[in-house]
Amino acid sequence: MKACVLYSGGKDSSLMAVILQRLGYKVELVTVNFGTYPSWRAAEESALNLGFKHRVLEADETVLKDAVGKILEDGFPNNGINQVHRYALELASMTYDIVADGTRRDDRVPKLNINEIQSFEDRKNVHYLTLAGFGHKTVNHLSENLFTVKKELTNMKNNSDYEIEIRHMIWEIEGKEAALNIFPEHVQSRVTGWKENE
Amino acid sequence: MKACVLYSGGKDSSLMAVILQRLGYKVELVTVNFGTYPSWRAAEESALNLGFKHRVLEADETVLKDAVGKILEDGFPNNGINQVHRYALELASMTYDIVADGTRRDDRVPKLNINEIQSFEDRKNVHYLTLAGFGHKTVNHLSENLFTVKKELTNMKNNSDYEIEIRHMIWEIEGKEAALNIFPEHVQSRVTGWKENE
Fold first, then answer.
1. Which chain A residues are Cβ-neighbours of B105 within 8 angstroms?
2. Are A127 and B137 inside 8 Å of each other by CB?
């Protein structure tokens, strides 16, 4: 029972990894990268600190370009990020039969709707698992009990969300101000290891 | 971290119990009963076979009567069962701060929508957890690995779903045929214990 979790180094995908491991899956943490910026490094560090195997899935740069085009056209990132996430899931499904991510009940982006999920499972003959049964309050509570976490402003080195390569590409095309307008600075939580009692 | 799972003895609520236990919660399995028929017995047996504490939460018979009235008016059980489930969650929230059930991604009844879930968590100051991130394919797969399961036709003694007390009350009011029309016989899976390697 090998399963992969699309992994950013954050609390949500870390919790998903722990749940699957404790249910008996052999878990591999996977970070998709489009080859434009090594944004997977923070995720790899978190994964290794938790004792999981980590893999970078090399992705097609044109998908990132299309998503950035969509984001610049829209003026906001939601649709472009969903585009990237759907692609990342499909990419993972080429290697794994069980594909998971850390999307919670109250997440809005990235998120597949119920029809997209059903279609993904049927077309690719995979199991797709999420944290949709858990809200942010529960994830925070569990994370506090399980993990040591570092809270800090997101920068180019401490985050492995899709956001980083997207932001990097927008910066190159439209400049720093455009990149920061679309992705304002915010505080993030990054998992740095296990709490001592775990 | 004490948590309760609304428990029927089926695969879904058993899996939810295992997930929460393996995340560190002290789990109690709870079956709501309206005092009209001892339908909690099958659930208690499954819970004890898995080594969990089991409790019966005594519920108000008028809630069951209202639900049965709704079901007879509708001619189908969905709305009445949802009514009972919402009440069961509220009842559990009077004793527990963390309330879970085994509703899956592809379940239609009983199920709270996202607004009902948010309202429930806020009004009662609880965490509400479900299996909404897992589809039936995944639950079946995990259940096969974790549990021994007995497949058989549902009867009054081997099932602890809300259905049993509802069916019993309809039988008393409208007769056997009406009860079987609304709840046709079907095959169920009941968890009977752990697989040997667990």
1. 114, 117, 132
2. yes
Computed over its alpha carbons, how large is the radius of gyration of chain A?
A: 16
CB contact under 8 A, B127 and A137: yes
**Min Cα separation A61/chain B (Å):** 30
A-chain CB neighbours of B127 within 8 Å are 135, 137-138, 141
- CA B30 to chain A, closest CA, distance in angstroms equals 19
Give the number of beta-carbon pairs within 8 Å between A and B: 66
Kindly report the backbone phi and psi dihedral angles of residue A23, in degrees, each rounded to the nearest multiple of 5, phi listed first.
Answer: -90, -5
Q: Using the Cα atoms of residue B191, residue B195, residue B196 and residue B198 in order, give the sign of their dihedral.
A: negative
Instruction: Return the sign of the alpha-carbon dihedral for residues B57, B61, B67, B68.
Output: positive
User: Side chain identity at B175, as an amino acid letter?
Assistant: G
Say how far residue A38 (Cα) sits from the centre of its chain.
14
Q: How far apart are CA A162 and CA A82, in angstroms?
A: 10
- Cβ of B193 under 8 Å from any chain A Cβ? no
Q: Which chain A residues have a beta carbon less than 8 Å from that of B18?
A: 23
Strand partners, B111: none
Residues A179, A180, A181, A182, CA torsion sign: positive
Which of A106, A128, A134 is opposite residue B129, by nearest beta carbon?
A: A134
The identity of residue A121, as a single letter, is: E
Cβ of B18 and A19 within 8 Å?
Answer: no
Cα–Cα distance for residue pair B86/B89, rounded to 1 Å: 5
pLDDT by residue for chain B (198 residues), tens only, comes to 899 999 999 999 999 999 999 999 999 999 999 999 999 999 999 999 999 999 999 999 999 999 999 999 999 999 999 999 999 999 999 999 999 999 999 999 999 999 999 999 999 999 999 999 999 999 999 999 999 999 999 899 999 999 999 999 999 999 999 998 998 889 999 999 999 877
Quote the distance between the C-alpha of residue A110 and its chain's center: 9
A133 lies within 8 A of chain B by CB: yes
Q: Specify the CATH number for B2-194; select among 3.40.50.620, 3.40.190.10, 2.40.10.340, 2.60.40.1220.
A: 3.40.50.620
Residue from the list A106, A121, A133 with its beta carbon closest to the beta carbon of B133: A133
Task: Give the phi and the psi of residue B107 in degrees, each rounded to 5.
Answer: -70, 145
Domain borders along chain B are 2-194
